[in-house]
Amino acid sequence: MTPGSSSAVRVEGNGSALGVVRARKEEAKAFTDGVPRDTGPGAPHRALIAPLALPAVVASAAVAALVVLNRFSPYVAGTYPICPSYALTGLYCPGCGALRALHDLTHLNLAGAWDMNPLTVLAIPLVVGYWVGWVRRRATGRARQWLAPPWALHALLALVVVFTVARNIPALAPWLAP
After folding, report:
1. Contact 138/56 with Cβ under 8 angstroms?
2. Which residues of 145-163 are buried (b: 16+ CB within 10 A; e: fewer)?
3. Domain ranges of the chain
4. Which of 51, 126, 132, 163 could be bridged to 138 by S-S, CB 3.0 to 4.6 A?
5. Which residues make beta-bridge pairs with 31?
């Protein structure tokens, strides 16, 4: 039903014009752009919880993965599968050592994490910051204010490529290889 349709009007009292106007105003409040709006008890809470459900699921999955990673060490052979890029080419990809880096971070060993994959250690604050921004946008209902400029995406891609090449140079292996 749309606001103002005759079959949706509830008439108050003896069907006076004032009763019809009140009923139509009440009905119009329950609609926004033709979409019914929840006006019952607890509606403000549901309106805040619903947009935050997806970020909460993502955060829960990340925490669960970190708990598993904390419990089962990637340093033990056979615990996790080998990197497919390394298995096929013998070269370290940008993600090689990321599981070990995250494992070390769950044990608060920043130096060990840096030795395994410095790119992962640098990316974690950025990923957490992006997640916080996502939660804020979902909670306030605002759209994203800006997108990353193309040069920033190109610079990120160049950084990953340079990191990948550098970690496979034998002279830099003591610092960059996992």
Report:
1. no
2. eeeeeeeeeeeeeeeeeeb
3. 1-37, 46-176
4. 51
5. 36
Instruction: Check if the beta carbon of residue 66 is closer than 8 Å to that of residue 102.
Output: yes
pLDDT, one tens digit per residue, over 65-114 is 999 999 999 999 888 888 899 999 999 999 999 999 999 999 999 999 99
Residue environment code for 85-101, b if the CB has 16+ CB neighbours within 10 A, otherwise e: eeeeeeebbbbbbbbbb
Q: What local confidence, expressed as pLDDT, does residue 49 receive?
A: 75
Question: Is the pLDDT score of 27 beyond 80?
Answer: no
- The pLDDT score that the predictor gives to residue 5 is 47
In this prediction the pTM is 0.69
Q: Which two tokens stand for residue 88?
A: 């096929």
Q: Any idea how long the chain is?
A: 178
The separation between the first and the last C-alpha atoms of the chain, rounded to the nearest angstrom, is 62
| Those residues with Cβ within 8 angstroms of residue 72's Cβ, 6 or more apart along the chain or in another chain | 79, 80
Distances (CA, A) of 108 to 20, 31, 61: 67, 51, 20
